[in-house]
């Protein structure tokens, strides 16, 4: 037990040290400008900005309840939320930002509409709603950490919030891109390990799907755990696809990622990598969360499924 605790402490010490090092890579630069950033860093940072603890923990819990129909949400994230964005929106956004010399999404819209009042209103709106969104993200990360660190959740929430604040304060947007790319890579490795572990428990993906098919329908998965539900529950899944894949086009933290682009050619390198990583993350997470119904008791609260 002591050895395991020591290993956890060493792993997290290494994680925080790397986090601090990458955050400081932005030190000395304009806090609002990223400069030239490698396409792989941009792709991983985009995915990490897109798919946070809210998706992995919260939507993982929904996959446990709704079954494999949640893979429609993953498909929407990959094609509508990534391919469409980089195919049609990212580079034009960068051109507009460069031509208007805008530093933030609110400034971009304000200068585009020649309305300083609009910029102030949007800045206030973004601050309020990003605060609400960030609270959910930070809580999700704290719930995951609570499974391996013997600390109360309220303390872990403050720890995560301080780490994020540190990266932004020290490294600006350049530092944020590097630390998010690191987190995207860690999530990718972690989900791959989780997928292999769950597949081992259920006898593989094919055997797991066959076992899911044998389970009786529920109120949320009224057509079984392999099919889109009929009626209101099926429309709820479709609405999640729209909210998480199309509404994301207008999120300021996603728009800001396009400001780091240096050429239209760079978009061609970012797109397939971002789509591949996102497919593994959300596809793998939602798939194994649905399979978790075979190995976890039905009394598990949705937010505890992925951490467990």
Structural summary, described in words:
The protein is mainly α and 308 residues long. The chain is built from 12 helices and no strands. Helix 4 (71-100) runs antiparallel to helix 11 and helix 5 (105-112) packs antiparallel against helix 6 (116-145). 35% of the residues are buried.
Largest sheet: none
- Percent helix, as a range, is over 70%
Low-pLDDT residue intervals, each spanning 5 or more residues: none
Structural Rg: 20 Å
> What is the SS-derived class?
mainly alpha
Quote the beta fraction.
Answer: under 5%
Q: Tell me the overall shape.
A: globular
User: What integer is the average pLDDT?
Assistant: 92
Order of helices and strands: HHHHHHHHHHHH
The total beta strand count reads: 0
Termini gap: 19 Å
The tally of helices reads 12
């Amino acid at each position: 037990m002591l050895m395991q605790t020591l290993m956890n402490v060493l792993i997290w010490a290494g994680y925080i040290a790397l986090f601090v090092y990458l955050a400081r890579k932005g030190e000395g630069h304009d806090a609002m400008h990223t400069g030239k950033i490698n396409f792989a860093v941009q792709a991983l940072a985009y995915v990490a900005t897109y798919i946070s603890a809210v998706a992995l923990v919260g939507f993982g819990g929904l996959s446990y309840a709704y079954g494999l129909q949640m893979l429609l949400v993953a498909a929407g994230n990959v094609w509508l939320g990534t391919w469409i964005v980089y195919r049609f929106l990212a580079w034009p956004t960068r051109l507009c930002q460069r031509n208007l010399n805008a530093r933030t999404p609110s400034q971009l819209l304000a200068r585009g509409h020649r309305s300083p009042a609009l910029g102030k209103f949007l800045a206030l709106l973004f601050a309020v709603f990003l605060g609400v969104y960030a609270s959910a993200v930070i809580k999700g990360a704290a719930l995951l950490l609570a499974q391996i660190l013997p600390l109360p959740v309220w303390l872990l929430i403050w720890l995560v919030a301080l780490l994020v604040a540190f990266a932004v304060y020290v490294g600006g947007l350049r530092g944020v891109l590097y630390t998010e790319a690191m987190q995207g890579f860690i999530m990718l490795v972690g989900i791959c390990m989780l997928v292999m572990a769950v597949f081992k428990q259920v006898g593989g993906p094919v055997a797991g799907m066959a076992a899911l098919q044998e389970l009786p329908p529920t109120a949320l998965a009224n057509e079984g755990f392999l099919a889109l539900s009929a009626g209101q529950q099926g429309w709820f899944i479709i609405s999640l696809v729209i909210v998480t894949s199309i509404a994301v086009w207008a999120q300021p933290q996603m728009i800001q990622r396009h400001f780091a682009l240096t050429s239209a050619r760079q978009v061609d390198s970012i797109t397939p990598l971002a789509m591949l990583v996102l497919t593994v993350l959300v596809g793998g997470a939602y798939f194994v969360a649905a399979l978790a119904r075979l190995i976890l008791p039905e009394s598990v609260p949705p937010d505890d499924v992925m951490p467990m």
